[in-house]
């Protein structure tokens, strides 16, 4: 251990190497509270690419596992420490290196916070769409590691679609550059996308070239109340099936609405079974909003209220963004599912989730990016209550099984991490698992990069 | 040889195995006429996934190279036969299996022709954007193999962005399913994108789940004449830098304009140095078209003509699409560069290309997807004239070197194939090459899949 720390210190500044167990313990896990996490041997906070290369060379020489971390807002335990590992926190590499409106790219270090980048590009009339709920805390490096999504995805897609090129420090310390700075490019195999969503298990991202879009007009949100989640899902089918392109399309169930009201007294309609939020950010959203209002009414909405202004719209979005914290406040702990199903199976997914909640006697609130078919059932439980904790884990798993049976995936945007690791093979099957393991072995032959995650 | 053919016939219908040398010779190469091509031992035309699996198992057992082919409209020799190989033509697997407006996906076999799919989805109000110039002939499988682009990319991106999931027969005949049918999904490493653009060197795509968009309004095109390519490129900088989102932004240089007039008598302005075409497909394109007209005039345009109707717009697009055939008609052969540079380096790229044409005493016409920085200098030459052929190859290479020196890539959308193979390492560097070779070895340990292509 001392030898390892001595070797790390040989080329890192003193303040970049943390060994106090009280301090290093605080780096042990991300926001998936229910996942196993080990005790790091040391936490390193590099500021340069050369620092990261030194760390990886040292880790390779000492055969020590390395767990890359961003802001640790992840929801699958992908950033959780393993015992005696080096936690490699990228938060000090937080410079925006370039924003170029003509090329429509930003070049950033991995520790840049999503909201910081989003605001910086907005100042130049540009837009970086990916907007995970944790956007005020989470880092671009973490977003790349988990291929994270957000509310924007139904129109703008996920993080992966905005990563043009990467600098990656490999397990042995070599520096790999992937992709490009140009709008297009197909030279060789697409290594960039291989790293996106790989949860730090293939290499350490130290720089990213990101695609930007022109800033759209501010969106206007419509809120519709439904007597059942199934009716709301029928509206979603119609909205998407008729070619509308909402900038967001979100659902909150009754449990979520009540939780948000309890936390923030927002006066959301608690009697409704499902609130649907649809927004458009086109120059003239009125025709789309009117058409969507009609489709909601036809699907059984009891109340349809278009927001009159961007400010009113923002209030509705705040309610939506509060859902996770509000559900988390209901009980001591939560496990958040991330099942994405075909849009036409959403009703079955939500009805099935309600049945699972009833079967296990648990509170499971659901918010969902319904435009994408991506549901987040939030299982609320008390880990001190052993029986409830067991039921929570079982219901969490049963929700994934339901998603798979409906032709869906166990993870739409949160990643596999530790939480869903044993489920990955069920989704991918043996051939894909073997290929994935083969690729992992090419990039990390010693298995030191975030072991126990993804595969 | 007889043994191989016997083994193939054991599980393939008689008409699916072609051995007549006059017939198999016609499958020897794609449209990159100047690339080496071998003589196939046999051409197979499977109709089912099981056929493809049988072919790959047989190829593995006999250690025989397999060259997958679509419509052979590629421009880099990626589909060229190697000596004694099995040519695996996917053109008979040409069924559209599913078009779903709610999920916004199409599920297709690889031999479906791009235009056939585009028209089929249009009938349901949907849009499959990727539109290579060869869209009336080229297949979706070929598009996936080369990650091809087209005119739409400046707004809608390339083929890669529309591939959600794949079924791939691996070198040893196993069937791998990658990706998903859902709008989002991040379970495991992104194998889908690894196969897109891999030119059949990692596996044989036998099914694809493609993302669709709602059909946009028909686009309106504006044409602007410039006294120099540099002035046109300055307009491009301004158009893109100010946040416009054209549905296409194309340039034709004087050589291209003259060639199209010579072929089709379209009355294009031959005195102009560069014609810029910009289009918008929004519900109300007028404000964007007016703003772009102003930017063109400010950049020095001598004439700016917005098309009055979709029909007039279509005529301008026809002229643009005729550029390659028209330039090909100038001389016995052409070599088509595919250099993509940052938008702000376009003027330098085009001036440099003109200087190279002069230096080598050659006709090099340029059409370009300038909105993406993707230029297609077309080197026209007579292969029977040994000296001219040498100068053609040298100028072709010098254009790639220029692109790299300007921070660009050797291929924006046509792929590496045989034509640019020795250039790939120059662009990627040794670390990326090593990683790429490692991945190739995982998926094709015997090296039988399209050997000599890409890497």
From TrEMBL, chains A, B:
It holds the Pfam family FAD_binding_4. PROSITE patterns: FAD_PCMH. Residues 36-215 form the FAD-binding PCMH-type domain. InterPro entries: FAD-bd_oxidored_4_C, FAD-bd_PCMH, FAD-bd_PCMH-like_sf, FAD-bd_PCMH_sub2, FAD-linked_Oxase-like_C, FAD-linked_OxidoTrans_Type4, Oxid_FAD_bind_N, Vanillyl_alc_oxidase_C-sub2. Its cofactor is FAD. Keywords: FAD, Flavoprotein, Oxidoreductase. The keyword Coiled coil does not apply. The keyword Flavoprotein applies. This is FAD-linked oxidase C-terminal domain-containing protein.
């Amino acid at each position: 251990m001392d030898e390892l720390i001595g070797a790390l210190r040989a080329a890192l500044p003193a303040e970049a190497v943390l060994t106090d167990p009280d301090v290093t313990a605080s780096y042990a896990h991300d926001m998936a509270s229910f996942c196993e996490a080990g005790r790091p041997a040391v936490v390193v906070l590099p500021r340069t690419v050369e620092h990261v290369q030194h760390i990886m060379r040292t880790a390779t020489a000492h055969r020590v596992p390395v767990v890359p971390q961003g802001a640790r807002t992840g929801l699958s335990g992908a950033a959780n420490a393993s015992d005696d590992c080096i936690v490699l926190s990228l938060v000090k590499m937080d410079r925006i290196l370039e924003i170029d409106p003509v090329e429509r790219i930003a070049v950033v270090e991995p520790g840049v916070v999503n909201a910081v980048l989003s605001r910086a590009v907005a100042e130049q009339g540009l837009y970086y769409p990916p907007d995970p709920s944790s956007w005020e805390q989470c880092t671009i490096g973490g977003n790349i590691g988990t291929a994270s999504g957000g509310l924007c995805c139904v129109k703008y897609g996920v993080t992966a679609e905005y990563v043009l090129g990467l600098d990656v420090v490999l397990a042995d310390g070599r520096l790999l550059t992937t992709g490009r700075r140009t709008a297009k490019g197909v030279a060789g195999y697409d290594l960039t996308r291989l790293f996106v969503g790989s949860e730090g298990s293939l290499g350490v991202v130290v720089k990213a070239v990101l695609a930007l879009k022109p800033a759209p007009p501010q969106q206007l949100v419509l809120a519709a109340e439904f007597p059942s989640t199934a009716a709301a899902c029928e509206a979603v089918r119609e909205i998407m099936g008729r070619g509308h392109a909402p900038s967001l399309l979100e659902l909150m169930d009754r449990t979520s609405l009540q939780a948000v009201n309890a936390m923030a007294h927002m006066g959301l309609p608690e009697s409704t079974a499902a609130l649907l939020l649809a927004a458009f950010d086109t120059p003239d959203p009125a025709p789309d909003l009117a058409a969507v209002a009609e489709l909601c009414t036809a699907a059984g909405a009891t109340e349809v209220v278009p927001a009159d202004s961007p400010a009113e719209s923002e209030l509705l979005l705040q309610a939506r963004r509060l859902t996770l914290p509000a559900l988390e406040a209901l009980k001591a702990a939560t496990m958040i599912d991330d099942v994405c199903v075909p849009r036409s199976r959403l009703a079955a997914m939500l009805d099935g989730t309600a049945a699972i909640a009833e079967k296990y006697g648990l509170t499971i609130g659901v918010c969902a990016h319904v435009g994408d078919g991506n549901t987040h059932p939030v299982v609320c439980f008390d880990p001190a209550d052993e029986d409830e904790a067991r039921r929570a884990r079982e219901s969490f798993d049963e929700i994934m099984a339901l998603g798979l049976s409906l032709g869906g995936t166990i993870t739409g945007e949160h990643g596999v991490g530790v939480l869903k690791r044993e489920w990955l093979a069920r989704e991918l099957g043996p051939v894909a698992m073997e290929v994935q393991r083969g690729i992992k072995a090419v990039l990390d032959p010693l298995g030191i990069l975030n072991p126990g995650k993804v595969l």
